[in-house]
């Protein structure tokens, strides 16, 4: 019940909600959470939810991992905060950079810290602008991304994001160019093979570079698997087709591994899963298993050397955040990387991914599920009105919101995204919890499709 003193009413009175369907909030109230246990969270009424989205992709070790909270407490006691300016930085920051290069696909490199994934992408764009300017290419400023990409919400990273909702901000900024989304099921032409689709996208990239001029393009950013775009693995051979074109024109390829990084796709990096080596990596979200806000730009050897030369030339890189390389964040990240890689979490993703897929394959027999897609522990089911023609439901029916809301009623948190439902649980999920997720989802699908189909 919503009373003026209720948590729900207090939340609605004083909070400006981000990325929230307000009609659902007005109708259903806000879910106010107090704590978690493993992959479950609890609301102020004591109701338990299995969070099949691990928070926002990031709480991969669950909500009560003692090793992580103890690493945080120990570091707060030891040295609770410092910056990384003026030639000073914490010992934890030094250790984390070493560790990130060690676990990266690069044999050498350099790391720069931010407080979020958006800021990490923003920082990477500034690094490219700075680098190209320093190398005598001041016109090399345009950024290439894809439709449906999600790179964040700052003015620059929102401009990189390929979503129509950014129009309300008058974004994208000029010079941000969006190429075709590599989703074969949705964007492949009727008679087009997957290989022909990939060739078409490669041609589009080449033609775009020639049209704009290679000397005007700073870099190409791509998530190995698009996350917030609806969990879209690349069409087969996509990165193998585009990387040679980028190389030919000297355009760096930046992998936005904010979601894919540290095990989500079944390997440490999504770029490993899809077999390409980027020039730099953007990391955040599960870098700290969600226990601290932190992002990182990881430069591979070529960019690291060139950027360092540019820095030496003017004696400083004029960029940084007050909390860049925060010692508590770094201590937590060091522990999180250890937990994911050495406590069986990454292995669990690998081990249960086939079971995950089998469960979705079963659910996708439903005539109103058009496609299931994903890899590792990131998957989506896409609802359709008509399966053979892939015709979506009328947007006014809010089918995915209805499914997600029905799941919430049943004690399962999942995320509506366009016409899809996204599942990206914590890496600690057990077989039993996976069964619970599928049972609750199946119930909700039946219920909602009976209403709308
Ligand atoms: C979440 C996300 C970001 C933005 O990270 P924030 O910490 O929310 O700013 C950037 N890129 C990708 C791929 C993401 O999923």
Concise summary:
This protein has 453 residues and is an alpha/beta fold. It has 2 domains: 31-64 and 344-452, Aspartate Aminotransferase, domain 1; 68-342, Type I PLP-dependent aspartate aminotransferase-like (Major domain) (Aspartate Aminotransferase, domain 2, 3-Layer(aba) Sandwich).
Write the layout of secondary structure elements.
Blueprint lengths: L6 H8 L7 H7 L4 E5 L2 E4 L4 E4 L2 H4 L8 H13 L12 H13 L6 E5 L2 H18 L7 E5 L8 H6 L15 E4 L4 H4 L6 H19 L4 E6 L15 H11 L4 E4 L13 H4 L6 E4 L11 E5 L1 H14 L12 H16 L2 H19 L5 E7 L2 E6 L15 H11 L2 E2 L1 E3 L2 E4 L7 H22 L1
Parallel strand pairs: 3-13, 5-6, 5-7, 7-8, 8-9
Antiparallel strand pairs: 1-2, 2-3, 4-10, 9-10, 11-12, 12-15, 14-15
- CATH topology term of the largest domain: Aspartate Aminotransferase, domain 2
What ranges have pLDDT less than 50 throughout 5 or more consecutive residues?
none
What is the fourth-level CATH superfamily of the largest domain? Type I PLP-dependent aspartate aminotransferase-like (Major domain)
Provide mean pLDDT, rounded.
97
CATH top level assignment of the largest domain:
Alpha Beta
Please tell me the total number of domains.
2
DSSP summary: helix tally: 16
Count of individual beta strands: 15
* Side-by-side strand order of the widest sheet: 4-10-9-8-7-5-6
* Sheet having the most strands: 7 strands, mixed
Radius of gyration: 22 Å
The gross shape turns out to be: globular
Structural class from helices and strands? alpha/beta
**Which molecules are bound in this entry?**
pyridoxal-5'-phosphate
Question: What's the architecture of the largest domain in CATH terms?
Answer: 3-Layer(aba) Sandwich
**C-alpha end-to-end distance:** 31 Å
Helical content band: 40-55%
What percentage of the residues does DSSP assign to strands (E)?
Answer: 15-25%
């Amino acid at each position: 019940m919503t009373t003026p003193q209720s948590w729900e009413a207090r939340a609605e009175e004083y909070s400006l909600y981000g990325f929230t369907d307000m009609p659902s909030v007005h109708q259903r109230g806000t879910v106010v959470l107090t704590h978690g246990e493993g992959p479950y969270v609890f609301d102020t009424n004591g109701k338990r939810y299995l969070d099949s989205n691990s928070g926002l992709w990031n709480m991969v070790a669950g909500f009560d991992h003692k090793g992580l909270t103890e690493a945080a407490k120990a570091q707060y006691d030891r040295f609770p905060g410092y910056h990384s300016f003026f030639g000073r930085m914490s010992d934890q920051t030094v250790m984390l950079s070493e560790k990130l290069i060690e676990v990266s696909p690069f044999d050498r490199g350099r790391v720069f810290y931010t407080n979020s994934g958006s800021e990490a992408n923003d920082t990477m764009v500034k690094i490219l602008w700075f680098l190209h300017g320093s190398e005598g290419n001041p016109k090399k400023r345009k950024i290439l991304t894809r439709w449906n990409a999600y790179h964040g919400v700052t003015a620059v990273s929102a401009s990189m994001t390929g979503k129509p909702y950014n129009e309300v901000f008058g974004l994208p900024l000029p010079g941000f160019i969006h190429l075709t989304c590599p989703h074969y099921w949705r964007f492949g032409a009727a008679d087009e093979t997957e290989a022909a689709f990939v060739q078409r996208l490669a041609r589009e990239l080449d033609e775009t570079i020639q049209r704009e001029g290679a000397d005007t393009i700073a870099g190409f950013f791509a998530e190995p698997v698009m996350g917030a775009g609806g969990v879209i693995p690349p069409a087969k051979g996509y990165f193998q087709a585009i990387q040679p074109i980028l190389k030919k024109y000297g355009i760096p390829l930046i992998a936005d591994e904010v979601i894919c990084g540290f095990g989500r796709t079944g390997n440490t990096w999504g770029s490993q899963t899809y077999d390409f080596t980027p020039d730099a990596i953007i990391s955040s979200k599960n870098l700290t298993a969600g226990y601290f806000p932190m992002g990182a730009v990881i430069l591979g050897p070529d960019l690291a050397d060139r950027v360092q030369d540019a820095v030496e030339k003017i004696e400083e890189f004029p960029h940084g955040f007050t909390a860049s390389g925060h010692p508590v964040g770094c201590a937590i990240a060091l522990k999180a990387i250890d937990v994911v890689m050495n406590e069986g979490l990454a292995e669990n993703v690998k081990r249960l991914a086939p079971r995950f897929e089998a469960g979705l394959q079963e659910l996708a027999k439903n005539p109103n599920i058009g496609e299931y897609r994903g890899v590792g522990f990131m998957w989506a089911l896409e609802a359709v009105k008509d399966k053979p023609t892939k015709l979506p439901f009328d947007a006014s029916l809010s089918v995915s919101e209805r499914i997600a809301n029905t799941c919430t009623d049943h004690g399962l948190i999942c995320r509506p995204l366009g016409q899809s439902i996204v599942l990206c649980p914590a890496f600690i999920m057990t077989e039993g919890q996976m069964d619970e997720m599928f049972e609750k989802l199946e119930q909700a699908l039946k219920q909602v499709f009976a209403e709308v189909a």
